Amino acid sequence: MRNRIYDTPAAALDGLLFDGMTIMSGGFGLSGNPESLIPQIRASGVTGLTVISNNAGADGFGLWMLLESRQIAKMIASYVGENKLFEQQYLSGELALELTPQGTLAERIRAGGAGIPAFYTKTGVGTVVAEGKPVETFDGEEYVRETWLRADLSIVKAWRADPAGNLMFRKTARNFNPNMATAGRVTVAEVEEIVPAGSLDPDCIHTPGIYVDRIVLSTVNEKRIEKLTLREGEEA
């Protein structure tokens, strides 16, 4: 069995990065972000990136780091609110944006991993989302055709991995990560724990190792909370 385990995030990305490439980056808000791999992409200096992700991080964290360094040329995302740097770059024309409804984004990524070039959905019919896309009628209802998404590189964050690359994700951090792992030409997974071969329950594996090319232990596990909401205590 070939060795998939790398010593550092930099080593795990070695030879994979180039200008103008497309990268899928897991995460939802700040949950499940590849916290250790993103800084190494920044350090590499690659530019002109197209990045596919649900959102673009938050101030000082996640994909925000690549926006701040002006390495992202285009974002394909579903949520871009509350990121002032994203807003500034988009409004100034520095950053191209393909805004995609969240469920459609997830399905486009899943389709890319499954080898399905296109599918139809009602979401976005009659809106700017459907502009320039074929619309067809099924059972008297209009549906817009969406195409798959694939990437040169997928970076994901998992909870556990075994040496074969089988991955387990934990709770909300599962989000877009499993689908993205299947849709990259190369997939690099940073994980919190690498366990011995055979120790993962096969029924609890979220991503089979056949989709994972490289594994590295996370060096950053901040798990920031984007918005902390506390319920006021009740009077005695």
Automatic annotation (TrEMBL):
Record protein name field: 3-oxoacid CoA-transferase subunit A
Give the top-level enzyme category. Answer: transferase
Q: Known Gene3D superfamilies for this protein?
A: Glutaconate Coenzyme A-transferase (3.40.1080.10)
Give the GO molecular function terms. succinyl-CoA:3-oxo-acid CoA-transferase activity
Q: Does the keyword Membrane apply?
A: no
Q: Which InterPro entries match?
A: 3-oxoacid_CoA-transf_A, CoA_trans_fam_I, NagB/RpiA_transferase-like
Q: What is the source species? A: Sphingomonas prati
Q: Which Pfam families match?
A: CoA_trans
UniProt keyword terms in alphabetical order: Transferase
The enzyme's E.C. designation: 2.8.3.5
Question: Would I find Transferase among this entry's keywords?
Answer: yes
Q: Which domain of life is it from?
A: Bacteria
